[in-house]
């Protein structure tokens, strides 16, 4: 199920926050939401960097970062061939994998930004939103999509 909401994704009470990132080794995560998440959850970023140093992180791959007793977890999805743009084919693969992971793990709630449509430069209304709906709408997991993103401390 998909719900479109507004608010600050960094204040999410969901089990996980999902984020699109570039393929390959993640020594950066230095822009946009990826930077904010890595700043707020540095231990999960360390796990992700270690993982990508030892494993090929390719188009559509999903990494789940979690620390016992700590919430939310972070889900990184390889949606971009580089840090400057997302690819719809990568996003398609990644959303399908995300759905499978959520179903197999019994994940109840995931927060999503307008994945691929920010720094990834895909069009939200004509490309990303229809793809999200075609893949995730029949899933038992509730995907809270922050369609109108607001930072809590900004007015």
Question: What's the structural blueprint in terms of helices and strands?
Answer:
Layout lengths: L1 E6 L8 E7 L9 H9 L1 H13 L7 E4 L7 E8 L7 H18 L3 E4 L11 H13 L5 E8 L6
Parallel strand pairs: 1-6, 2-4, 2-5, 5-6
Antiparallel strand pairs: 3-4
Please provide a brief summary of the model.
With 155 residues, the chain is α/β, with parallel strands linked by helices. It is 34% helix and 24% strand. The protein has a single domain, classed as Leucine Aminopeptidase, subunit E, domain 1, CATH 3.40.220.10.
Low-confidence stretches: none
Assign the CATH class.
Answer: Alpha Beta
Quickly count the domains. 1
Mean pLDDT: 87
Main sheet? Answer: 6 strands, mixed
Strand content: 15-25%
Strand order of the biggest β-sheet = 1-6-5-2-4-3
**Could you please say which CATH topology applies here?**
Leucine Aminopeptidase, subunit E, domain 1
Description:
It is built from 4 helices and 6 strands; from the N terminus they run E-E-H-H-E-E-H-E-H-E. It is an alpha/beta fold and 155 residues long. The protein has one domain: Leucine Aminopeptidase, subunit E, domain 1 (3-Layer(aba) Sandwich). It has a 6-stranded mixed beta sheet with strand order 1-6-5-2-4-3, sandwiched between helices. Helix 3 runs parallel beside helix 4. The longest helix is centred in the middle third of the chain and has 18 residues. The protein is globular and about 35 Å long. It starts with a strand and ends in a 6-residue tail after the last strand. The model has no long low-confidence stretch (mean pLDDT 87). This is Appr-1-p processing protein.
């Amino acid at each position: 199920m998909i719900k479109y909401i507004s608010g600050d994704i960094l204040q999410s009470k969901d089990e996980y926050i999902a984020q699109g990132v570039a393929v390959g080794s993640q020594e950066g995560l230095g822009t946009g939401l990826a930077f904010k998440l890595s700043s707020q959850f540095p231990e999960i970023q360390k796990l992700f960097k270690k993982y990508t140093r030892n494993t090929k992180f390719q188009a559509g791959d999903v990494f789940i970062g979690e620390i016992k007793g700590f919430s939310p977890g972070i889900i990184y999805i390889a949606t971009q061939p580089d840090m400057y743009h997302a690819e719809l084919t990568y996003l398609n693969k990644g959303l399908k994998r995300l759905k499978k992971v959520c179903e197999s793990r019994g994940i109840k709630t995931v927060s999503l930004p307008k994945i691929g449509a920010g720094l990834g430069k895909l069009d939200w209304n004509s490309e990303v939103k229809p793809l999200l709906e075609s893949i995730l709408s029949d899933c038992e997991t509730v995907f809270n999509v922050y369609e109108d993103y607001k930072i809590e401390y900004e007015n």
